Amino acid sequence: MAAPTTEGSERETGDTLLTLHLSGRLAAEYPRVRGLLAGCSETELLRAGNLLSRLHPEDVEQAHPGVPVVSVAVTGHGTLAPLVPALTAELARHGLLLRPHLTDYDSYVFDLSDPGSTLHRFDADVVLCVLDPAVVLDELPVPWTPEDVERAWDEKLGLLTGLVTRYRSTGRGTLVLNTVPLPALLPAQLLEHRSRARLGAVWRQANSRLLELAQNHPNLVVLDLDPLVAEGIAVTDERLSQYAKVHLAPPLLARYAREVGHLTRHLTGRTKKALLLDLDGTLWNGTLGEDGFDVLQGDHSEPFRFLQRVVKQLGSQGVLLGVVSKNDVEPVRAVLREHPRMVLRENDLVTIVANWRPKHENITGLAGTLNLGTDSFVFMDDTAAECGLVEAALPDVTVLRAGAEPAHHVATLLRDGWFDTLVLTTEDRARVEKYQQEAERRDFLQQSGSVEEYLRLLGVRVRLSPVAPSEVARVSQLSLRTNQFNMALTRLQPADVERLVAGPATTVLAVHAADRFGDNGLVGAVFLRRAADAVHIDGFLLSCRVFSRGIEQACLGAVLHHARAAGATAVLGEHRRGPKNGAVRDLYPRHGFRQITDDGTTTVFRHDLDGEDVPVPAHLQFTDQCGGDTP
């Protein structure tokens, strides 16, 4: 039986969603939506968004309390109602549920500056302040010159800078601005080419200043719309702009919504960590078993070399790279090591799996080896059957189908920003090296006589200290990316961490770890709050790379010790249930805490400080630098 066409698949998706909507079952079956939207075109996504945006988020939450909900407030200069369906669909395709708040037309100044505005009261996770060309054009006299445009931009940038500063002091969510594309009809009104060049320079300088705002405000993201316009998307639809005040064309709003979808996926802890690649037909243009070293020969090899360059670029920024191929391993290693035209090399990869087992079994094995959930993986393959098997067996793995045209492989890989992050840290750039060190640790474990001997000879060194200003970005990133050892499912932006560090009753502690194989860096954080005579552990998270080494026990013991020294009578900690953190539910009971409440979602534990301290494991060298900074 032939595979369904893309058009047929999209028609089936639309029919299914419409049937669920008309029958009143769309909320009850919302988890199906993610799969239904996979692979849909932007046109079909918008149709789906129009249906999904009619759902009441409360109905979905009631039916599926585990679905992550993202509250998004939308404000700006023009009419922005068309953005909501696109946002709804983009979040749904990532398994998220949108709770939107659309403010009044041209109310962004009041919305962002007044703490009593409906936008502030909505307390959004993400605030979109959508900027369009009319923000500047509406301020121009008639006739106008490039100097008038420059003055209008200067005033607008001053206003926006003030609004960003004001919102940062009063708002919680991540604020998103965007660059403003230059509409073609504006320079066309200037007859002199020199004046047009001056206008272009003024406009681009203003956008550059907008982009630079994000460098000084950690809770601000500025999306650059110029690369989207470069794809051939029109900036404006003149009829909609003049009659309805929709100043950005709907296709551009839809692409903007896709970028916001990537951002919200990251903010909810769903950033991918590892890229696994097939070889034959994906990473090189031959079949190794038939062509041998000729797999990268000839003009047709250039698209594959381009893909390798991009993959290597991603790896340099902390993406874990691996190969999963149906091949014999030694010829694969030989090509990676020795082929003169290979860009990607063996030492760029954290794992090479080449055998004849089903690929989904190999990926499952890699998840265990790397101590990652399967939802951390992106897998790319050019064979439809292989992609289908992995999708069926491991639905949490993101599968990218490399099509028949290798020149499109890079676009397929980058289209959805699977590895995007707010801030790139020192730990990110060293991640590949650290996972390669982890492979050495595994080999060392296999050679040890017992786990106890392994831990003793490993020489684990841990340092617990108050978070330094230079560590705020890393602590925020850990909270956004850590799912397995994340006791309270803490998700914090850099500004949130800064507030906790500076708070009079709150403390944030950083956990650093190293051993005989190298420095793991900042691998965890503890969030403490003093309330009356008790210390509350509002969050405790640890990187999956350092599990089961006694680090959590040493840190917990230090918290109890300092709480007692500060005069507290008890320490309380909580475990909020998530899809990935069930293995650490017994952390507190294992260390002398007793359960006091459980509402079905969150369990609260209490440790009365009238007994013995939790000891530091004998195999571990622990340095406590907290001093009097711990409540």
Overview of the molecule:
- The protein is α/β, with parallel strands linked by helices.
- The chain is 42% helix and 18% strand.
- It contains 25 helices and 18 strands.
- It has an eight-stranded mixed β-sheet with strand order 16-17-15-14-13-12-11-18, with helices on both faces. The chain has a five-stranded parallel β-sheet with strand order 2-1-3-4-5, sandwiched between helices. A five-stranded parallel β-sheet has the order 8-7-6-9-10, with helices on both faces.
- The longest helix is centred in the first third of the chain and has 25 residues, at 146-170.
- Residues 1-8 have low confidence and may be disordered.
Biggest β-sheet strands, sense, barrel: 8 strands, mixed
Portion in helices: 40-55%
- Order of strands in the sheet with most strands: 16-17-15-14-13-12-11-18
Contiguous runs where pLDDT drops below 50 for at least 5 residues: 1-8
The averaged pLDDT comes out at 90
Number of strands: 18
Alpha-beta content class: alpha/beta
- From the N-terminal CA to the C-terminal CA, the straight-line distance is 67 Å
Strand content: 15-25%
- 3D shape: globular
Summed up, the helix count is 25
Q: Indicate the radius of gyration in whole angstroms.
A: 27 Å
